[in-house]
């Protein structure tokens, strides 16, 4: 009889490209994943993967079975979710990805009451500043700061996020504060390394991109904030990263005459899966937890 854990192991290995990475995603030992994959091949009477020391490749049978295997797993998950919903229970696995800085600062405390209220949910949260592929990396949900352009995904807004150009008081004392976009070229910038380095501002004639002179590139927002507080240059930061520093005065808003382009926090999930009850509940919980306007902007005196 076909076992779903074997199908899950096969799909995970196909998505991850290796048994070791699939084992990490499943939270299992590598030997367990290998055994389940071998058992599935014995039951099907066909080799699903060609194994070598460097890589795994799907056979013709494996390629054909992968689509059906995904469907089997999805239908099983939907059946479990439907029964749980009928019982007014939320249960089962959820795999979520979020940026490191936002996840560390705000997502944890938002998730804690949700998990306490729904102990049947098995949440795996992976914090990663790289741009993960929700579908191929096997996530149920990803939280993104900015627009979601992937047509394979459905996106729900979680919260708004304003951005401000900020600097430490010491930096502004040592360097003449820029009062226009043109004046930014004379300043050192602290930039986010994982995306384009342009700073975008909203002018009466439309959006304008400014490419500042880099003083530091780093792929983590908390480190960008720390560098700005240390007086190393100007940084364009969302309020969820710098609200405490703005309130304390260790960072100041730099007014260049036009506002920086804002962004939104989105929850995105694969379009080819209907949103399960637990996924819908998590999204709605996060929307309430962050608030509108978001709690990190309440009490701030912002321009």
TrEMBL record:
One GO term (biological process): DNA-templated transcription
Gene3D superfamilies in the cross-refs: 3.40.190.290, Winged helix-like DNA-binding domain superfamily/Winged helix DNA-binding domain
Keywords, in A-Z order: DNA-binding, Transcription, Transcription regulation
Superkingdom of the organism of origin: Bacteria
GO molecular function annotation: DNA-binding transcription factor activity; sequence-specific DNA binding
Entries under InterPro entries matching the protein: LysR-type_TF_proteobact-type (IPR058163), LysR_HTH_N (IPR000847), LysR_subst-bd (IPR005119), WH-like_DNA-bd_sf (IPR036388), WH_DNA-bd_sf (IPR036390)
Keyword Transcription regulation: yes
All copies of domain HTH lysR-type, residue ranges: 2-59
Signal peptide: none
Protein family membership: Belongs to the LysR transcriptional regulatory family.
PANTHER family given in the database record: HTH-TYPE TRANSCRIPTIONAL REGULATOR (PTHR30537), TRANSCRIPTIONAL REGULATOR-RELATED (PTHR30537:SF81)
Name used for this protein in its record: Putative transcriptional regulator
Organism: Azorhizobium caulinodans (strain ATCC 43989 / DSM 5975 / JCM 20966 / LMG 6465 / NBRC 14845 / NCIMB 13405 / ORS 571)
Species classification: Bacteria, Pseudomonadati, Pseudomonadota, Alphaproteobacteria, Hyphomicrobiales
């Amino acid at each position: 009889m076909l076992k779903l854990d074997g199908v899950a192991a096969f799909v995970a290995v196909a998505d991850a490209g290796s048994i070791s990475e699939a084992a990490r995603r499943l939270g299992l030992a590598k030997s367990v994943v290998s055994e389940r994959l071998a058992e599935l091949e014995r039951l099907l009477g066909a080799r699903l993967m060609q194994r070598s020391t460097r890589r795994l490749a799907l056979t013709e049978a494996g390629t054909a079975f992968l689509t059906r295997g995904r469907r089997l797993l999805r239908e099983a998950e939907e059946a479990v979710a439907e029964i749980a919903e009928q019982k007014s229970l939320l249960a089962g696995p959820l795999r979520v990805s979020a940026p490191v800085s936002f996840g560390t600062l705000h997502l944890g405390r938002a998730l804690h009451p949700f998990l306490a209220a729904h102990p049947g949910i098995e949440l795996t949260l992976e914090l990663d500043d790289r741009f993960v592929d929700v579908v191929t990396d096997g996530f149920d949900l990803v939280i993104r700061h900015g627009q979601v352009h992937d047509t394979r995904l459905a996106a729900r807004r979680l919260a708004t996020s304003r951005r401000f150009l900020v600097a430490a008081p010491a930096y502004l004392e040592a360097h003449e504060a820029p009062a226009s976009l043109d004046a930014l070229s004379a300043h050192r910038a602290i930039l986010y390394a994982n995306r384009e380095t342009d700073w975008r501002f909203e002018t009466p004639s439309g959006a304008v991109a400014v490419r500042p002179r880099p003083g530091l590139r780093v792929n983590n927002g908390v480190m960008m904030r720390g560098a700005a507080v240390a007086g190393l240059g100007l940084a364009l930061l969302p309020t969820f990263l710098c609200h405490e520093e703005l309130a304390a005065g260790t960072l100041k808003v730099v007014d260049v005459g036009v506002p920086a382009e804002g962004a939104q926090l989105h929850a995105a999930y694969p379009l080819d899966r209907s949103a399960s009850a637990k996924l819908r509940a998590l999204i709605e919980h996060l929307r309430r937890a962050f608030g509108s306007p978001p709690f990190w902007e309440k009490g701030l005196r912002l321009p």
